[in-house]
Amino acid sequence: MGSTKTKLRGGIDLGGTKIQAAVVGPRGKVHGEERAATPTEGGPADVAREMAAALSGSARKAGVEPADLVGVGVGAPGDADPQGVVSGASNLPGWEGSYPLAAELSTALGADVRIGGDVQVATEAEFRLGAGKPYRSILGVFWGTGVGGGMILDGKPWTGRGNAGEIGHTVIVRGGARCPCGRRGCLEAYAGRGPMEAKAREEHEKGTKTRLFKIMKERGHDRLKSSVWEHALEDGDELAEHLIDRAVKALGAGIGSAVNLLDVEAVILGGGLGVRLGEPFLRRIEKQAAKHLFVDDRPPAMHVAALGDLGGAIGASLLFAR
Amino acid sequence: MGSTKTKLRGGIDLGGTKIQAAVVGPRGKVHGEERAATPTEGGPADVAREMAAALSGSARKAGVEPADLVGVGVGAPGDADPQGVVSGASNLPGWEGSYPLAAELSTALGADVRIGGDVQVATEAEFRLGAGKPYRSILGVFWGTGVGGGMILDGKPWTGRGNAGEIGHTVIVRGGARCPCGRRGCLEAYAGRGPMEAKAREEHEKGTKTRLFKIMKERGHDRLKSSVWEHALEDGDELAEHLIDRAVKALGAGIGSAVNLLDVEAVILGGGLGVRLGEPFLRRIEKQAAKHLFVDDRPPAMHVAALGDLGGAIGASLLFAR
């Protein structure tokens, strides 16, 4: 079977909970997509195997072979060097060290592989194809297990020395709550789904009534996924409302501060919780952010990420569209 | 007397306390400089008159006429439009509205006048001629009456929609101390010399012992100028040490957060207090910032502004060196 190159690109969004793969056309159309759970045990090689399988599944749905793709982009957590060696992806099993992800995936798929930052590629996807299209300068805020950020300034990605965008680790309460990063008072300590779950568990154990963990079990999950929060809020669960309100205020302070510093035209809210809770919660965050805006007569536009859950994978595919 | 154009440029740094004018050569050499107190009464026309006088004095010392200068740049607070109309410079007497500063100064001096943001021109001066020279991306932090910021990203000034750099109004304690801007928990509420003086006065009136106000009077001032803080610290004044320590921790949190977001190569500390207290305090701020750095194994370089008090005026002169 001879390989015929197509104009399609592969993209894989490697998250702590799920692996989202997609095969994407030159204008961002998704021709096939497949999702897999991120392995919680094993090591980088197991994760890479799941990634290759999800991408192969997406290609099959699109009617192509992985080797026929222009290339496969990956949005990964941690640090990637120019050769595609990924280090310190501490959300992933056994990935404290380094792993040659690009080389291994390339061998498995028979395609070129490039690695980008997970949040940065999702920001670029929104900028080029999604809610950020009308603007030259945007801040992407990804509200999920953690809180990540990406920037496009005057039409170009700004990544600093490679690690810009850590809005989740801007300090909003000096000396405040402990963050998963080990520091205190970071935005993520209040708004990350991880710390929110820890806080909910703590309150629950102290006797605060909540349906959060009941909903979690009913839905067959072992974590407070975004959908669990959504259902608890719909049920009027007080603890869920309290913790989400705390997160909304924290996000408002963090986003307001970032806008005071950067003065971007627009803020795009993505991530599991951001996309799931959507417009009404975006407006609540916007209202909180407005309280902190130094120039308060022309706030930035605020939008929910238009590409939703697929933004990361689509953005990763754009690593081959430059 | 015929006017002979020189290669010299004029620069005026318009601050809330002082007006610093300078005549500057093409490579940043100061040929003449003069300082005046910013009028505390009257209106914009009075301020403009003092500015013209200080610039004329600087020119005289440099042996030229203002009309012989390539042009005169001004670093101003508030907002300047492209025609050099300055609005909302609320630190200055009667300047809540708009005033055609460029046109008025140009008439008074017989030279072209351009207006830039005070903090941004000072950041550019450090980038092109001062402590920021070795770097492509810097954050300038100006610690004085307020706390201002400026950015150079990949060699170019980043001003957003015209108001980027407000690091003084990033939130470091959500719901915390009241800031002069009317909001709560901003960096400036803890580190601005204005709020620090208000807090010192409040503590003093409550009975806390301090030599701050005695030193102020002995030195013939009616405000706690940077030199007053410096002398009180030298005397081991406990209240002064406490409030400076509070400011240092606040600056550390604000700078750490900004670096997490921007990942710049270097941070330059200027402003009245920054320059006056200098290296030992920069190191204390650096230590505090390090506690908040998400990527903590390669902190940005930190330097005191090399151009000192003249950075603003030199930076303003660079408005005619592009």
Count of the separate structural domains of chain A: 2
The 3D shape of chain A can be described as globular
List the uncertain runs of chain A. none
How many strand elements of chain A? 13
What is the terminal-to-terminal distance of chain A?
Answer: 30 Å
Reported by name, the CATH topology of the largest domain in chain A is Nucleotidyltransferase, domain 5
Task: List key phrases describing it.
39% helix; Nucleotidyltransferase, domain 5; 322 residues; homodimer; 10 helices; 5-stranded mixed β-sheet; alpha/beta
Describe the model.
- The structure is a homodimer.
- Chain A is an alpha/beta fold.
- Chain A has two domains: about 10-120 and about 310-320, ATPase, nucleotide binding domain (Nucleotidyltransferase, domain 5, 2-Layer Sandwich), CATH 3.30.420; about 130-305, Nucleotidyltransferase, domain 5.
- Chain A has helices at about 45-60, 100-110, 120-130, 185-190, 195-205, 210-220, 225-235, 240-260, 270-290, 310-315, and strands at about 10-15, 20-25, 30-35, 70-75, 80, 85, 100, 115, 140-145, 145-155, 155, 265-270, 300-305.
- In chain A, the strands form three sheets. The first copy, chain A, has a five-stranded mixed beta sheet, sandwiched between helices. A five-stranded mixed beta sheet of chain A has the order 11-10-9-12-13, with helices on both faces. Chain A has a three-stranded antiparallel beta sheet with strand order 5-6-7, with no helix packed on it.
- In chain A, helix 5 packs antiparallel against helix 8 (about 240-260), helix 6 (about 210-220) crosses helix 7 and helix 8 crosses helix 9 (about 270-290).
- Chain A is globular, with a radius of gyration of 19 Å.
- The interface of A and B includes residues 149, 172 and 291 of A.
